Amino acid sequence: MITVRCKKCNATITSLHEHDYKACGCSNQTYVKGDIIGGNNLDHIVQVNTPRKEPELKLGTEAPRKRKTRLIDVDIR
Question: Does the predicted TM-score (pTM) go above 0.70?
Answer without folding.
Answer: no
